[in-house]
Each structure stands twice: as C-alpha cells, then as structure tokens.
C-alpha cells in the first residue's frame, strides 16, 4: 500500500475514533453505536465497521486506534444484547475468513499448522474451533474424504451450545477475560487475513463428488506418527482419507515402519523396513499397470508435508530425494512451513511413509552422534547436524534411486509385461508437467554443508539406514 493511501486510511480511522471519543465524553462508551444507529445503520453493521477499523489499524500498527476500538468492543452497549452482537460479528468475520482461505487453497491441517507455527498453541486451538464452525454448513456427502479425515485428526467439532455464546464459552475454557478473548479473536483474524493464496489440491467443501472406485483422490495418507519436535511429519490428511489405497496394505506398512523405528537392533529394522518398502513399491507398480490397462485418465495429485525447524532445509532436501526416487516432485515453501509433493497417489503414499520413517531414523542417528566443539571449545553442533542431515539426504537419494530402478526392472521381468517401464516413464513425465504448471517459477537451491565430520557421519548413517532390495522380502506384498 502506498504511503499516501496509508495516511488517508489512518486519518479516516482517527476521525471515527474521534467521533467516538466526543460522544463518549457526554454519553459513555455506547455513544459510538448510538451515532451509527442514528445514521440508519444497525447495531450489527456498526460493530462490523468497528471490527474492520480495528483490523485496519492493526495492519497500520496504529496502537492508539486499536486500543480505543478494543475498548468500545469490550464495553458494547445494551448489556447482554450488545455482548452477543459483538460475538455474532466476530463469529461472522472468522467464518468468512476461513471460507475464503478454502477458496485460496488452504485445507484444515494447513491452517492449524501455520497458526501454530506463527502464533502458538492457544490461537491454534481457536482456529480449530473456527474450522469446525465453518465446516458445519456443508452436507457430509459434498465434503471430500480428505477434509473429513483432517477434521477428525484435529478433533474439529462444535462443542459450544450457541454461536452467540461461543466466545464466552471459549473464555471460560481457556481462563481468559472478555478483553483477552476479543484480543485472541482479533489476533487470529489478522493472522488469517495475512495468508497468501496457495495451490488448490482437492475439491472445495460443498463441491466434492465421490470418485470412481480405484482412482486416487489426490491426497497422501498423512502418516500420523510424529517426528522430531513433536509435530506431525505427514501430510494434511489421515490414512483413512484415501479410498483408493488398500487399507490392509497400508496398515501393514505403518506397523512395520513403527517397529523398524522402535527396535534397537539394526538387522531387525532393516528387515522390517525392507518389507514395508516392498509393499509400497509393488502397490505402486500394480496401480500403474491397472490404470494403463483400463485406459484411466487419472492425473497427478498433490499433498502437503510439514517441514519444521530445526534444520528445515536439510529435512526439505530429504523429502525432495525421497519424492524423486518415487517419481514425485517436491516444492518447499519455507515461509509457510510445508512442502507440496506432486505425484500419482500410490507414489504419494510411499513418499509420505518413507520420508517420515527416514526422518525418524536420521534424527535418532544424529542424536546418537552427540554434540561437537571446535578446538577453541566453541559449539559447532548446529553446523555438524545440518551437515549430517544434508549428507544423509544425498546418500539416501542415491540408494533410493538405485533400489527403485532395480525394483521396476524385477517387476517387469516377473510379470512379463513390457508396458511397465514405458508406463512408469510416462507417469514421471506427467508429474513433471503437472508440477511445472502448478509452480511455474520453481527455484532449486542446494543445502549448505559446512562441517566435514557431519557430512561424513551423515553419509555413513545413510548407508546403515533400512533400505533393501526385493530378494530379502519373503512376505507377499499383495497379501
């Protein structure tokens, strides 16, 4: 916004506040609303205008106007009637804000992640309520399965009795007084209004239709296990959200990887992860051949994977190599705390599950390596760990790519289907084209590694990570 426009808007805000002060001097805090009513504006319209003035003043960092507007909202006239009117206005504002963000590509878990990242846990709890409020208006049959799964993961439910009393109930639950509750809501609104448009990955609420059986729905399984930092490492949905995936197979994969991460024995972890990898690889190949045989017009889809500090650049690099080895593409939005992975559904499933498992393994190996100091006794732990994870990612990428190529060749030989390699190549091209269409200005950057010992240790850990070829798997991956 230009400086002249900003000054003009500031002047208007101060003029409104001045009118409120003049009336308040003779008649108390309700005078602002009385003046608006005398101009044939309803109480609701007056409050909406005051909320807009508050948000604009926040944007312009005009603390004096913000404080005055907040005081008027807290001291709304008419007792309970005025209080409920303020509640209704703010509820309407947040409902419209969340609905607009759906249009802008955001999904429930995306909103929860970004609000947590930028504002903290209490605003994150408030946005879950706002999501529940907004989603209530849609018939269940018109809401995509991915959205339903995300709502379940977030436990986004309307727990209050009446919308007019939601903010009061919120204050009671959180131990916040009236002024603090209004500040919480205004802070959340300001945060939501600051979010940019992002890529639309699935049908909007109210528009979803059930897809034909067997086609992917464009969202990964959203592995619910947690990686370093206690945040979900998977995508924006729950495993049950994908009707095209074999639930029994995915359950086996999750169970195997969970055991691989928890065992203290390297050989057991290798065997368990090898089986899980086999299940996913064979599932992806079977789906590709089935789609080609049926002449399916299925297109690449996308999912979002949270990438959080510390060492977020190295984690994004790990996700990128895992995606590449599984014929997917990953695009990292650092400022938003996630990467978008583009690919066909079975491959997206493999990327999410394998990335989460490898991140857990890499983090555990990094922590076992301990801290580091230079010769002067100064800590170089951060540079060591950054280099460790960067090296781990590079080496894992090499191993994954080799394993993927070998698995494809063996599958083609076993099935005798000469279409497999051309089909997989065509899928890779489709993913590249879809990614370039979705992200026309992709810029690739290498992750810096400044600690030689960290690089060597990370590469060694990658060599020990649980990745093996098909010969070591005895279970039937389609069982």
What report would you give on this structure?
α13 packs across α14. The chain has helices at 3-27, 31-38, 43-59, 63-74, 80-103, 108-119, 121-135, 145-154, 166-174, 178-193, 247-262, 266-293, 312-325, 345-369, 381-415, 420-438, 452-464; strands at 301-306, 329-333, 338-343. It folds into two domains: 3-193, no CATH class; 228-472, no CATH class. It is mainly α and 479 residues long. The protein has a three-stranded antiparallel beta sheet with strand order 1-3-2. It is built from 17 helices and three strands. β2 and β3 (338-343) form a beta hairpin.
Q: Keyphrases for this structure?
A:
single chain; 479 residues; mainly alpha; 2 domains; three-stranded antiparallel β-sheet; 4% strand; elongated; disordered C terminus
Question: How is the topology of this model organized?
Answer:
Elements: H1 3-27, H2 31-38, H3 43-59, H4 63-74, H5 80-103, H6 108-119, H7 121-135, H8 145-154, H9 166-174, H10 178-193, H11 247-262, H12 266-293, E1 301-306, H13 312-325, E2 329-333, E3 338-343, H14 345-369, H15 381-415, H16 420-438, H17 452-464
Region (Disordered): 1-37, 211-247
InterPro entries: DUF2786 (IPR024498), DUF7168 (IPR055592)
Domain DUF2786: 248-287
Gist?
This protein is 62% helix and 4% strand.
